[in-house]
């Protein structure tokens, strides 16, 4: 059977280059996500009854950035390639070689959010809801950057929209799984959270529920896409069935249930 596939777009992974300085699309993905988060939270903080002030968000941007970067890097080291970094610990600091974990970045950002809220006496659940609404924009930008880099591609397939990625040594037509995640984790999840946030308002939705929906929504998309995403070559599938990404995603459903339960319980107590 003749398999037709879509040519992979030839986009330079370097977005801007000035002399020896090169800014990659991947880095811009994180920058876009963090700047949007800063803008969105500051805007919401100006509204009556907001759980924080715009100045709080100016301070939290540093906390959040460190949480995402440090958590993402340590998560990759611990979850995906620990033996390699045990042999070469200095490689942990070579961020330019790549290697970031969403789940690690999530843990780091949640920890930064919790500590910041505790220090500044801010409602953790309500602040978390606002952050959750903005998060899909960064996810969309980073997944698009993954696609431009030709990395994290999917498993071999014969679907009409299959692509051959230059970084694939086998040169097989594959699922563009990065785009699946960009749509599911970014566009679709953002639409759901915005509807939940604006059509009901935070005053009507129990605090923590929106953050819980984010956890559940991301977890669902990631778990499903992993079925067509190529697992890391050095990890493969556990018992031939589940990937490392799916295994790390399972606790997100528990976290979602805890957040929603905590919010509904607080709301019922105050009713």
**Beta strand count:** 4
The average pLDDT is 92
Write down the secondary-structure element order: EEHHHHHEEHHH
Structural class: mainly alpha
Question: How many whole angstroms does the radius of gyration measure?
Answer: 20 Å
Poorly predicted sequence stretches spanning 5 or more consecutive residues: none
Question: How big a fraction of the residues is strand?
Answer: under 5%
Q: What's the arrangement of strands in the largest beta sheet? A: 1-2
Number of domains: 1
Largest sheet: 2 strands, antiparallel
| Number of distinct helices | 8
Q: How many angstroms does the end-to-end distance come to?
A: 64 Å
Percent helix range: 55-70%
Shape category: globular
For this entry, give a set of tags:
single chain; 271 residues; two-stranded antiparallel sheet
Description of the structure:
- α1 (25-45) packs antiparallel against α5 (124-149).
- This protein has helices spanning 25-45, 54-79, 82-87, 102-120, 124-149, 177-198, 209-225, 244-270, and strands at 14-18, 21-24, 163-164, 173-174.
- The chain has 8 helices and 4 strands.
- β3 (163-164) and β4 form a beta hairpin.
- It is 61% helix and 5% strand.
- It has one domain (22-270).
- By secondary structure, the chain is mainly alpha-helical.
- The strands form 2 sheets. Strands 1-2 form a two-stranded antiparallel ribbon.
- The model has no long low-confidence stretch (mean pLDDT 92).
């Amino acid at each position: 059977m003749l398999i037709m596939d879509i040519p992979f777009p030839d986009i330079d992974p370097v977005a801007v280059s000035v002399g020896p300085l090169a800014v990659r699309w991947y880095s811009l993905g994180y920058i876009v996500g963090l700047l949007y988060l800063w803008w969105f939270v500051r805007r919401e903080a100006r509204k009556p009854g907001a759980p924080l002030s715009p100045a709080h968000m100016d301070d939290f941007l540093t906390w959040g950035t460190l949480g995402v970067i440090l958590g993402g890097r340590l998560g990759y080291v611990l979850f995906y390639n620990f033996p390699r970094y045990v042999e070469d610990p200095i490689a942990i600091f070579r961020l330019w070689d790549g290697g970031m974990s969403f789940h690690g970045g999530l843990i780091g950002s949640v920890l930064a959010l919790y500590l910041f809220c505790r220090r500044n006496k801010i409602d953790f659940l309500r602040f978390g809801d606002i952050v959750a609404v903005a998060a899909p924009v960064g996810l969309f930008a980073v997944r698009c950057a993954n696609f431009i880099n030709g990395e994290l591609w999917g498993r071999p397939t014969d679907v009409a929209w299959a692509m051959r990625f230059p970084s694939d040594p086998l040169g097989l037509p594959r699922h563009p799984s990065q785009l699946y995640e960009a749509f599911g984790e970014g566009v679709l999840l953002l639409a759901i959270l915005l509807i939940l946030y604006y059509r009901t308002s935070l005053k009507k939705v129990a605090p923590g529920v929106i953050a819980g929906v984010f956890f559940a929504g991301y977890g669902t998309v990631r778990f499903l896409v992993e079925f067509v995403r190529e697992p890391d070559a050095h990890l493969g599938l556990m018992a031939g069935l589940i990937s490392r990404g799916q295994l790390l995603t399972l606790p997100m459903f528990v976290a979602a249930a805890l957040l929603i339960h905590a919010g509904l319980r607080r709301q019922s107590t105050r009713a």
